[in-house]
Every structure is written in structure tokens, then in C-alpha cells.
User: Fold this.
Amino acid sequence: MKNYKLAIVGATGLVGRTALKVLEEKNLPNIEYTLFCSYKSAGQKIKFLGKEYTAIELKNDSFDEGFDFAIFSAGAETSKHFAPIAAAKGCTVIDNSSAFRMEKDVPLIVPEVNFNDVYKNHGIIANPNCSTIQAVVALKPLDDKYNIKRIVYSTYQAVSGAGKLGLEDLENGSQKLPPLKFSHPIYDNCLPHIDSFLTNRYTKEEMKMVNETRKILNKPDLAITATAVRVPVRNCHGESINIEFEKSFKIEDIFSILSNSPGIIVKDDLENLIYPTASIANGHDEVFVGRIRKDYSIENGLNLWVVADNLRKGAASNAIQIVEKLIESEI
Amino acid sequence: MKNYKLAIVGATGLVGRTALKVLEEKNLPNIEYTLFCSYKSAGQKIKFLGKEYTAIELKNDSFDEGFDFAIFSAGAETSKHFAPIAAAKGCTVIDNSSAFRMEKDVPLIVPEVNFNDVYKNHGIIANPNCSTIQAVVALKPLDDKYNIKRIVYSTYQAVSGAGKLGLEDLENGSQKLPPLKFSHPIYDNCLPHIDSFLTNRYTKEEMKMVNETRKILNKPDLAITATAVRVPVRNCHGESINIEFEKSFKIEDIFSILSNSPGIIVKDDLENLIYPTASIANGHDEVFVGRIRKDYSIENGLNLWVVADNLRKGAASNAIQIVEKLIESEI
Assistant:
């Protein structure tokens, strides 16, 4: 069996740490790890797989020693500079940033949804935005059967999506400190503002959901609108998804399709007050779907409530699943 | 000038207390107040308008002494029993509960929207559900001009809407106590569950938004769907509202209509990162509207983000505004 060298870039960040946790749980065989970080964090000791690792500063020659894979979770600027360098040295990069997602020759992959697109890569594979990943896992099997015509997204996004400073803002919030990460206090407040504002009056986050959903579902003209809202929850994003299909459906078929699709756990038992919540999704790699019901305001309408761990399935776990499937497909 | 006798029913509850606060701020002339409560709270001393009031137990003969108005905020069961008794004695009841809202001969009033319907009352006027009130204040002037065809609501509702125990659950939440009011912890969690579940898989709260919006806008067949979610915020509801109009519009006209409509404050200055939040709406009677933008996924689509103080405009202040306007219209 082949041995693989895997670089974790941004190992000291929130997604990087989550990646290490997920990798410890999975304990994949025959992989040798190197943990990269910024100049600032270099030298940090990290306990991982029973050993003590030292985080190493990422440099232009870091990929000279022949990596098979690198998972980048260090922001768009780091990815823009270093991912092409890594790819040129023969390393397959799975990039968690937004840097390359919409580039034509960069596949944007959610393993449950469009893994076969991965082979179009030229060394860089993009991991979608967290809020997009959990949505498309739920939408894909329904699109296959009923053909989605339009989507209205409203999100309830956790502060961990904004990194360590986002978490700190929520935790400090009751003390009335000025926010470190957000533009306004997030404690006791919802902020309809994630990432920066664009000239079309949408946020980048909202347009990521529109454009990435289209790319992943391979429906470049799909009608989608989105409102992205940060809520005072530490981890796990919620989404209210309103869908219009071309074809008619029976609600019991939606239940059975979702229950039998990969990566989905249906939590929808109203009698016992069971539905997806952050507290249920936290620490899991599956996407939790509930509040499944017809939207009676249009002909083939459906409402869903979708929750997932944004640090895991929305970032680290999705990237690791890509690596796993690439290794499997080589064997 | 006439003197009026006004009863506050449920004076010791969260909405009742808010009503007293709003009445103190307004300091309406020529009104004599009586504060009613349940057997359990009877005898409580309440400082109000510089005097000490004693909350009195509400009984079948409480309305014998000739009240002009009563604001009921003591739940549907109390309203069902006592509001007809009060009305029969010639008292005009403004009822904050859901008991009579959908009854044909009970007007459901938001003063900025449909005050003229108030005169159809037979002694009972219903105050709409909090999440409906703030929505219709924003929607009415747009409906008048562009004719709303369909609405998709997703709400971000504060715990104060669930009363004192709801607030306690949020405040106790980090201590991992079992919830007093909610079915699951609300601290660090969003719950897609407000009021009880119905056989159509919607919650009562969601169907209130559908049915009450139709009644207030006087559009009994308007296409509406709703997802109502409780968020870990103490006070002020947020709403992501997606609207489809019959007629086309210019986005600058939407800004100017909303800015010039009663009861609305537009907060939408993206360059300065200004948009409605709970922290901005808290303590105010206006409805705050922002994130105003075209929904490019349909022909005449619009997205709005609407925030209001659910205890004030969503309950107490709306009821008091009805009383004020009734008094004005008599003068």
C-alpha cells in the first residue's frame, strides 16, 4: 500500500484544528502529516495522533519535499499565493478558501454531490463555502428527482464560521467589549451581514451561496436568492430553505429520498418535538434535515430546515472526505 | 374632555409590564388605570406613573364598574373567558392573545395598516401576533403600490416572545439546566419550533403569520409560506422576508416608499455597515427595515430584513396605539 504525505496548512486556526480532530477520529492508514502555519504561529506545539507536532511556517519552498495532498484553511490570500506553488510541485490542493472556487478549471466538490467532477482538477480542488455545502447535500437528491426551479435561502450562521475572533466576540459579548471580528455586537443580536457588501446590495456570503450552488448542482442558470444572517450560536449553521420544483412530489417520497441519501440524517418527528438543532449537529459530519413540509403557496413548493457543523462538514470534514475518496479511487 | 377608564389585564406579565412602561412614556391625559392579574400575582405592588398600584385579581365582576378600554395580555384562556364579559359590559377590549384574531367579526388591527377596520368591532379588537405586526407594517405600503403576489417568511424570534420563562431559559442556558419553557436548550441554539405543531407540519406560529397577514392586508388568498425560528436573543424579532410583486419596481422607489411610510425607520447604509439589528430596535415602537434589495431570481422580487421590538410594537405598543387612536377619533 502506498504512503501519502498530507500537509495541513493553517493547522493552528479553527478549521485546521477541526481537521486534526477529524483526522484523529478517522485515523487513516499510511499517511504522514506536516502541519503548516503562519510566521506568527510557527513553533506552536500541537498534540496530534499521540505525538507532539510542531507547526512550521509556510514558505515558498515548503512543497519542495513532495506532498501528495494539502488541505489549505488559512484564508484566501494564503491560498492565492501558495496553492499554485504546491500544485506546480505535484501536490493536490484541497482549498477551503474562496480563492479559486468560481474558476472554471477548479472543481468545487462536495463528495456526496459531485465527486466525479474532481478529476477535472489541475492540482487545485476547491472546498465550497460552509453554508453552501450543507444546502447542496440536502438539495442534490431532490434535484435529481424533481428538478429544482428556484431556491430562497435564509441562513442562521454560527460565529465559528468567522474564526476564533468570532467565537471570542460571542463569549465576550455580555461584557460590552467592542467587537474584535464583527461590525456590531453578536451577543444577544443577529447580524444580517456576513463577509463584505457588494454593489448589488448582497453580501459576498449570499452570492457565494447563489453561485456555488449553481456550480455544484451544474445548473448555471438556477434561480436562487439568499439572505445570510449571523446568529449568536457558537457552532453549526441553520438554514431555512424554500424550494420550488419543476415536478410534483409526495411529501412521504421527500422523506424517503432524504433518509436514503448519503451524508443526510433526517430529524423530523414532530410528535416527539424532534428537529435539527445546532446542539444535535455539533461534532457530526452529516447534514441534519427536518421541518420537511409542503409549501402551499406555490404548486411544487417545499420548505426544509437544514443544520450542519460548519467547521466539520462545512469545512474540515468535507476536505478530508475529498482526500479519502481520492486515495480510495487510486487503490 | 372626557375621562377614560383603562384596565390592564395581565399587568404583572412581560407584555403587561411593557405596556405600563410605554404608558408611562406616553403619559396620556385623562386616563384612570386599573391593573388586573391572576389570583397568583394578586396583591403585587407596581410602581406606575409615580404612584404605587396594587395588582388586583381578575374576576367575573371586575368589569362591572364601567371600563372604557381593557388591554388583555394574559394568554388565550383568560381572554376567551373574560374578554366577552368585558365587552358585554360596554368595555372595548384590545386583546393581545390569539383567542379571537381569526374570528370574522373581530377586527385584527395594526394602526399604520388597517385602522379603519377597527370600527367593525363588537367590543373586541384583536392585536396581531408579534411577528405578523412588524411584517405588515413594512409590507402594506409596498402592497398598495406594487400588489404582493407571494411572501416567503423566515423569522429570527427573540425569547421574550415566550414570556418570562423564555427569558429565564436563555439566561440559565449556559448552566445546562433543563429548560423551563422551551423543548430544547435555546442558549447557543436556534429552535425551528414556536408554538405547537399542527397536522399540516407547520407550527401555529407559522400559520398565524400566514393567516393574519392575509386578514390584515385584506387579501384572503395571498400566497404565503413561513418558517418560524426561535433564536438566542433576549428581545426583538428579525425577519427575512422574500416578496414577489405583480408589478415591477425601482429599488430607489422602495427605499423612498418605506422611508415615507408611518411607523417605519429605514436602516440601510451598507457603506457604513448600518442595517437593522435587535440592539437598534430594542426599546422603540417603530419597525426597522433594511437589506433592501432586488431578488434577481424572479421577475418582481424583493428581499427585506425587518426588525422590531416584539414586546413593544409586536404587542404592548400596538395595543396602546389602538386605544390612543380610538380616543382621538372620539374627540
In short: Chain B touches chain A through 51 residues (CB under 8 Å). Chain B has two domains: 4-127+315-330, 131-310. The mean pLDDT of chain B is 97.
